[in-house]
């Protein structure tokens, strides 16, 4: 199609999202830069003139009606189209204000980070969330469970809605909750949120709104859309299609639980979003735990109504609890601080080991002793053990249904079944059945009439009981059946692993996990990844000797300060695994692969025999502020040698100048977070200044590794768009590596044009 036909087709698709179902949209040229668009909406004929900046522009930049001209963004936002003011008004009503909210600090991760300093997260995210200009802007936010990313996002979305109503912001943010949705698809999640805010537009209209910059999509639970290859392909396809339809414009804010999912998105995007129509760039933000000052601010605000002596008493108690050795990793997380403060207002916490266990015990005790009492004699209806059993059954049912929400009817049915089993009847049973959906640790879900755990941490905690029970039966068939249900939360895997290693023989437990993978007849990758998470839970922060595992996939499950002596990891996959404080001493890893693992050369020990550098695809090096990525075999070899990898040699590589390889590796690090670069990009300045850059670019183009693409974006921009994964480019430096002919051609050209100085 010529540029006129492309423009008309694009505009027709945009307008069709607002037109009456089945109504024809007609777009006809009025001049080189003006087109007349007509369609029926709400039964009325609408007609406007749409303008484009140049004859090569693919999308409108303005709209004319009579003597009035407005921007395309304002036109789509208006009351006659999306009515974003109405959505903003309802957003303010739907998302409750957070009283005494204490914001989080954050770090900017990767090449964009020039200082390594902590910044105010709200200010940072708002400054980054600008519509892409030729590349869709993806702001990727990660945070550990309990840091408060959901609270932050909802706070920001509500604030932006207020600013929009006041005219202080030209774009509206839409909160989209993808957490816990069964095989979540982005279009379904968007449709649900639009329905919640009573929007009069279908989800199809979100594409032109985001592309034009009128709407910023804020997706919480982005990891549910990324998933892993296999059962989550459909979910990722919905995400890839949405980004593709944006055609290199607009902004999406995405939040996930860990940097693992950032790398998973980048890896899958490298192949799924590789066509010339899919330009995107990712900026990574890491949310941090509260500093001591932030924690004090929160405590002060929430105890301001209490007398000074009470405030000081509570403050001292909290400090004592949160600084205990067993809670050193969670003491500054907002979730634990706020829950501890909530419970201390009613009295001291129960004694015990571990802050989470003490919090759960306090909530359960308060529910049983104070609220779930017989309407006849006022006595407690359930024991604490029985109440825990009910919550574990609810968690197991959510797991089996692959969701984080159940209908209130389902929760009552569980209460009735379990209540009858433990001997409840009459008024007592009726009280439990009616009250359970509204009791402690549970809350209203995102769907009407649904029930969810108040926080994913509580869901993971109560999921440990059924998982421990099945795992403890030592039946690989039963274990395989439960592990293939969905992606196991890392918190649950860690908790179960720690519980089980205290009760059972470690090797026997690992054997059952490995056999469950071999027994899998369905989604073997899912079972392998979940089994790997449970195995990591056993090994984490623990010293083991002589263990043997095979066929497991270790993903984002934390190893912590695991020490494995004389262990064997056969045919295992380490994918995005954080091994920064792990140690493998005098061990073996025959047939295992390491894809984008993260190490700390100051602490990680990888005395793993049976490996070659070709077993490693990408290596993240933890520094004081972030991770630095290595992809060339020589750079990986140097880093792994410092981690103690035996026989870490690089052989049979193309003979190319070291400074040319360094420049290519720097380029690949930039390509990790985008598939399109321009020579004018700030981060490209060092590369472009290299005297060999023009020759390197020529080799990249001649081999087909990159292609040029011209776009109308604040003027005409020439993008250098990659056609292959950046990690594969450097992998191709080894002559026998399994890469495409395109990459082989690149290295042959580079070897011919830039032979190493030594060979001269």
TrEMBL record:
SUPFAM superfamilies: P-loop containing nucleoside triphosphate hydrolases
Domain of life: Bacteria
All copies of domain NACHT, residue ranges: 137-225
InterPro entries noted in UniProt: NACHT_NTPase, P-loop_NTPase
Pfam families: NACHT
Name of the featured protein: NACHT domain-containing protein
Source organism: Amycolatopsis camponoti
